[in-house]
Structures are given as C-alpha cells and as structure tokens.
Amino acid sequence: MPVPGVSLGCDYNPEQWSPDVWREDAALMRRAGVDLVAVNIFGWSNLEPSPGEYRFDDLDEVIELLHAHGIKINLGTGTSSPPPWLSSRYPETLPVAADGTARFPGGRQAWCPSSTVFRDRALDLVGRVARRYGNHPALALWHVSNELGCHNALCYCEASTDAFRSWLRARYRKIETLNEAWGTSFWSQRYSDWSEIQTPRLALSLRNPAQLVDFQRFSSDELLGYYRAEADLLRKHSTVPVTTNFMVTAHIRNLDYWSWAPEMDVIANDHYLDHRLGDPVAELSFAADLTRGLAGGRPWMLMEQAAGAVNWQPHNVTKAPGEMIRNSLTHVARGADSVCFFQWRASAQGAEKFHSALLPHAGTDTVAWREVLKLSETLDRIGEVAGTEVESDVALLFSWESWWSSEGEARPSQAVTYLDQVHSAHGTLRELGVTTDVVAPGADLSRYKLVVVPGLYMISDTDAQAITDYVSGGGRLVVTYFSGIVDERDRIRLGGYPGAFRDVLGVLAEEFGPLLPGAEVALSNGATGTLWTERLRTTTASVVATFQDGPMAGIPAITRNQHGAGTAWYVATKTDMSEILREAADVVSDKSGKTEIVRRRGDGRSYLFVINHGTEPVDHPTRGCDLVTGERVDGVLTVQGGGVAVVREEDS
Questions:
Q1: Where is the Beta-galactosidase C-terminal domain (predicted)?
Q2: Direct distance between the N- and C-terminal alpha carbons of the chain, in angstroms, rounded to an integer
Q3: Exposed, middle or buried, 236 (CB in 10 Å: 0-12/13-18/19+)?
Q4: Which residues have CB under 8 Å from 365's CB, separation 6+?
Q5: Which 8-state DSSP code applies to residue 9?
Q6: Radius of gyration in angstroms for the set of CA atoms belonging to the chain, rounded to a whole number
Q7: Active site residue 511
Q8: Measured between alpha carbons, how far is residue 28 from residues 33, 193, 245, 321, 372 in Å?
C-alpha cells in the first residue's frame, strides 16, 4: 500500500478554490488524520490552458503545502477529461455513440479511446507531469486518468472502427476464421474483406451477438492499451507504484478487470452505495470480495466512496450516524488497507456540487465532520490489521464476458439478468456467515471446499474442464440456471442444456421454460420458484426437489449428483438457496444477514471483524482484544446495533 497501516485518503480539487482555502484545507486534513490525497485528477485545463502553454505553479504549491503537513500524494496524470480547446481544434477526438451521433464536451470523458490525436496530446502532458514530479518525496502513488471507461468505453467512430478491425485481424488472422466465430452464415452476414466490418452501431433488427461480445472485448482492451501507454511513460521517469481506479459496482460493466488487474501495481476500486438495489450493503460486500479477487487475495485500496449522499442517483440518500464508519470497515474487513473518499471539500459549483465530502458545505461544526474524525481514530487503532489477508474456503466464479453475453439483445427472458444470480448466491452465503472469494473462470480451485457458479452462461472448454476436474477430485459445486450454455464464441453447446456442465451435474435439459414476471411455481421442498424453469431430466443425478405446478410440473427443479469423489448441485429456477448452500458449504452456525463475520490472518496474527448492520445487539464467541474500543474480550463479544468490533484473536 502507498501508506503504512490502514490509511485514510481523499480526492482534492484545489483548482476549485483559492490559495487561502488550500492552506486552511491542509491544516484541516492534518487535524483529520488524512494520510493520502489524490490531486490533479481533472487538472489538464489548469496545467495546459491553451495548446503548448504549460503552468505548473499552482500544482507545485499544492504539492509542497501537503508535503509540509506530512501528507502523501496520489498524483493524477490530469488526462481524465480534456480541456475545451482540444475538442474545438480536433473534433474527431469526440466519442460517437451507438446511434452514430457524436457526444459533445461539457461533461467529462469526452474523448475516443482510439483517437491518436487525443493520445498524443494526453501523453505529452503525462510525460511533463512525470518528469516534474516523479522523484518528489511526497509522491506515494501514480493515478492514471480516472475511472477509465465510465462514460466513453464504447465508441463507434471511424477511428474506433479502424482499431476494431485491427484488433479482429490480430485475434482471428483470417477472415474465414472470423466468419466461423461470428456465425455469419446467419442472415447473409458473411464478410469477404476486413474493410467491410463496422463497429456494431444500432441496427433495424437484432445485431450479431458474437460481434457484440467481441466489440466489448475490443473496447476493454483498447482502454487497457491506453492505460499501458500512460503507465509505461510514468515508469520511465519514476519508480513510484502506478494504478488507476476500477469501478467494481453494479451499474458499470464495460471493462473486463480480470485482464486489467495484472497491469496494476496496486488494485484500487471506487464504490458507492446504490440505493436502486434491494440491499446496497450486500452489494458493497460483493464488490469488496470481487475487488479482493482482482488483487489475488492480497490487500487493496478503496480509492473512492461517499461520506454521505451522492448526486447521480434518482434519490440521493444520505448516511445515518455511524453508517459511513460501518461501510468503511466492511471494506477493510474484506481486504482494503486504504480507505479514501471523493472528495475532501464539497464543491460549491459544477455537476457534483450536491455530492457529499469529508468537509461538507456546512463546515466542521457538523455531524459529518465528527464522523470523519471518529473514522480516522478508528483506522489508526486498527492499523496493525494492514497486510493480513481475508480467510475464505468458498469461491464464487464471476465473468465479465458472461455478463456481456448473457444479457444480449435476444435471449430466453429479458427478466433474467446476470448480476441478479450473482448477487443472490453471494448474498445467501453472506447471510449464512460464509466469507466468499470471488474468482475468475480458470482460477485454481483446489483449496476451496465449495465453488458456486451462478448464471455462468459463457465458458470455454478449458475452464469448464477445470471445474469438472475440481469436482472429480472431491470438491463441491453449486451451479444455477442459464449456465454453461455457450462457448467463448457465443456458440450454443449442442446436445442439451446446461451444456458444459451436463456431465458433472448429471442432468440434461431439453428446453427452457421462462416464467412471466410475477408468476410463481411451487417446489416439492416447500419453496417457490420464479423467473425460470426447464424441461430437465436426470442422467446420473438424484432429485432434491421437483416443480409441483406450472408448465414443468413433475420435472426436477433441484438435483444433486455424485461425480468422482465430489458432489454437484444444480438449481433450475430462481429460489431460496439457503438450505442447498448450507449443506454444500457445511455451515453449522446460523448467522443473521444483518451481521457480517469476517476474519483476516497473516504473520501469525488473526483479526475477527464483527459488523452489525442491524439495530439489535449481537453476541459472538471470541477471545482477545477489541481494537476499536481497546476492551478485553473473554468468551463472548457483544456488538451493539450499528456497531463494529475488530478483535485481535487469542487461542481459547
């Protein structure tokens, strides 16, 4: 991590304020115990107000001021949003949407990832920033651009079209190989030359799904290539670690972070509670587990979160007293060694003027400011946790490619979504008190006692075989509906569903039977099913539950199969999976869904996090010292409603 211990950080945009405010802010940051400050995230127009005119005086002063107050710098390259002069002089740098229209400046990220003009001008700035500050003693981390692909990941302009063709030629080599991969014999789509291929703009009918998936892959790779260009330049002039902030969250899906993660010196994520979801705190836990998976199980940093409300949801709910601290420590429990916020001082102008900050519009005589001070004190007290890793023996497989492909334009049911299955499985494990590693298809599964595969529509032969081998060797597997259906070309696996998993699950489905929204079917185990049914029969599996009514009455709904030395369950409908996962994970305890129990270990140390998201006290057996309160725990720990305990454990 860029700063020792469990650090507190924030974004700072000094260009919005006068030098007098800078000095006030630096003093308040020190008072608040801020360790790391991100600056120059949106600094391009200040550093280069007109083409070739560079002004570094303000940034020099801010960096020296923070350094004088003992604060480390997370230095942005300043390229996340270009200045108005760039698009004015070079309108070809603007991104083009799927409908073929250009998107104009006035917001942020108004640039095409494939634009060589943009890249040349941006890298010129990066080089100047790197040479000027690369050896500064306050510099702890380089921050490439900002939230790459948040708004401009998919561009359909001519430059993107040319880049897409080049990417396809590198991937397929021969046009006939591409035709086979895309199934272009359908609807007379066969290509005779690379020049005929376009980016998949909106069409009058359904578009080619294999082309859409490849365009998603290309777009992720194109932005990754841009990241590499900045990172390579920074590393040429500096030995300081380089990263960028991921967006592992429910409403962002355009980048395959499994391919990005190896390029990062530090894995960093931005996460904001999304109140459009049924349980935003459960999604927070999933996102933290997935970010830890991207970090290979090692500690990571929370680059951004909100102190209170955001400004971009339909209803921007603020956080109750204690909630910000509780959310922050949930990230720490699940592997974060740095907790940072957007932003330090709430903006007085601009699109984010109603976004919360560590220092609110009302100043320091506020509940929000006192919460910040309390969080800072807490992070200092639990600093010894840093460097330890989260303990888990259950894995959940997650794939951005499966997310893209399973939610194509033409599918059995528009009501069936990938994240719904993923969140449901992870949330159920969380309610059972099970900490889950989120890993990529193809990951080493040997150390896990249970692997859960929710809605993994697309999977390669190699990755499917790895799962089968895991079960054959004694592992336990739970697979949910709409899994294993296609290979990596989005080609149906013929012979019956669930395709790649038929043998290991011991079942074969002849056809899908999606349910209309609101419809329910009864199951023989007393549960109900929604959204999905299948005309399923067993080959080697035993039946756990059947559909009692509906179009598949009498048909298996949940099965269990002995395969080699292991066991595999299949769930062919949306239903409560508590009992299945309890059995599969061999869970004895019955934790409340409002309490999270997570353990971090390392170097002979063990720390138990007990996070009570509910209103009533909870008891948990443990022995040691609660770092949050400093109190000795002998036998039973009581955590009050809304409270958090972090116990340095001792053997009983």
A1: 595-649
A2: 32
A3: exposed
A4: none
A5: E
A6: 26
A7: no
A8: 9, 62, 25, 21, 11
CA dihedral 9→15→17→19, nearest 10 degrees, is: 90
pLDDT at 590 over 60: no
pLDDT score at 197: 98
d(CA 306, CA 355): 8
- The string of DSSP codes covering 259-290 is HHGGG-SS-EEE----TTSS-HHHHHHHHHHH
Distance, CA of 305 to CA of 272 (rounded, Å): 5
Q: Which residues contact 158 (CB under 8 A, 6 or more apart)?
A: 92
Secondary structure (3-state) at 558:
strand
61 has catalytic annotation: no
* Catalytic residue (one of 48, 147, 401, 431): 147
Q: Among residues 222, 304, 431, 596, which one is catalytic?
A: 304
CB 503, CB 477: distance < 8 Å: no
Per-residue model confidence as pLDDT tens digits over 170-199: 999 999 999 999 999 999 999 999 999 999
Alpha helix locations (H) across 475-631? 502-505, 578-585
Q: Residue type for 531, please?
A: L
Alpha carbon distances (Å) from 257 to 252, 261, 623: 11, 6, 39
Distance CA 362, CA 308 (A): 13
How far apart CA 82 and CA 121 sit, in angstroms, is: 9
Paired tokens of 94: 């603007």
Sequence-separated (6 or more) residues with CB below 8 Å from residue 203: none
Residue 581's nearest CA partner among 443, 394, 416 is 394
Q: Is 400 helix (H, G, I), strand (E, B) or coil?
A: helix
Question: Own/partner pairs for 498-501, CB < 8 Å, 24+ apart?
Answer: 498/570, 500/459, 500/461, 500/464, 501/453, 501/464, 501/467, 501/468, 501/568, 501/570
How many Cβ atoms are within 10 Å of 419's Cβ, its own excluded?
19
**Please, are residues 456 and 441 in contact by the beta-carbon 8 Å criterion?**
yes
The SS3 of residue 139 is: strand
- pLDDT, tens digit (0-9, with 9 covering 90-100), for 621-639: 999 999 999 999 999 999 9
pTM above 0.90, yes or no: yes
Cis status, amide bond into 498, omega within 30 of 0: yes
Question: How deeply is 7 buried, as exposed, middle or buried, from its count of CB atoms within 10 A (0-12, 13-18, 19+)?
Answer: buried
Q: Would strands 595-602 and 389-390 be described as parallel, antiparallel, or unpaired?
A: antiparallel
Q: Which two tokens stand for residue 558?
A: 């949940």
**Can you tell me the mean pLDDT for 548-560?**
96
What burial letters (b/e) apply to 291-302, b meaning 16+ CB within 10 Å?
bbbbbeeebbbb
Cα–Cα distance measured from residue 571 to residue 578, given in angstroms and rounded to the nearest whole number: 12
